Amino acid sequence: MSVALRSFAALALFAIGLASGPANAQKAQPAPTAAQIHELAPADLPKEARDTIALIRKGGPFPYAKDGAIFSNREGILPKQKRGYYKEYTVKTPGERTRGARRIIWGKGGEFFYTEDHYNHFSRIH
Questions:
Q1: Residue 11 in domain
Q2: Quick check: is 114 in a domain?
Q3: DSSP E strands: which ranges in the chain?
Q4: Which of 49, 65, 88, 103 yields a CA-CA distance of 20 to 30 A from 124?
Q5: Are the beta carbons of 21 and 28 closer than 8 angstroms?
Q6: Per the domain annotation, does 101 fall within a domain?
Q7: What is the mean pLDDT of residues 1-24?
Q8: Helix residue ranges per DSSP H, 20-118
Q9: Which of 40, 51, 37 has its CA nearest to residue 93?
Q10: Cβ(45)–Cβ(38) under 8 Å?
């Protein structure tokens, strides 16, 4: 193999190593799964979340236009269901001028889930 060809091969291998990232780079963590959903008693919810559940059970009226929108479960954390199975509702956050990050997710089977960090973690309300 000629010197030029060996230099080219070495450069190509070096470039491949750079493209794959540094050796000490952290690997992406897998998304939480349904098995990682915590159980939560209604009494342990913030008052605003209990109020939201009461509104859902009553059928409204809801304070936010997006309340009742389909929750797609793109994160894949909740048990897998057909599109439209889950609906999302805003939980008011005291002092927050926007909708904030807290939500109640309601499944057609009657189950409720709570997230306080905009779908990163969920608790099933039992």
A1: no
A2: yes
A3: 38-40, 69-71, 86-90, 103-107, 112-115, 123-125
A4: 65
A5: no
A6: yes
A7: 45
A8: 47-58
A9: 51
A10: no
Cβ contacts of 123 within 8 Å, gap of 6 or more: 37, 38, 39, 40, 113, 114, 115
Q: Which of 39, 48, 88, 121 is catalytic?
A: 88
- In the chain, how many domains are there? 1
C-alpha to C-alpha distance for 6 and 2, rounded to whole angstroms: 6
Q: Which domain holds residue 85?
A: 29-125
Q: Does some domain include residue 2?
A: no
Give tens-digit pLDDT for 56-112. Answer: 999 999 999 999 999 999 999 999 999 999 999 999 999 999 999 999 999 999 999
118 is annotated as an active-site residue:
yes
β-bridge mates for residue 89, sequence order:
104
CATH at residue 103: 3.10.450.30
Check 39, 96, 118, 126 and give the catalytic one: 118
Cβ neighbours around 99 below 10 Å, total: 17
Read off the tokens for 46.
């913030």
Lookup result for tokens 């909740």: 78
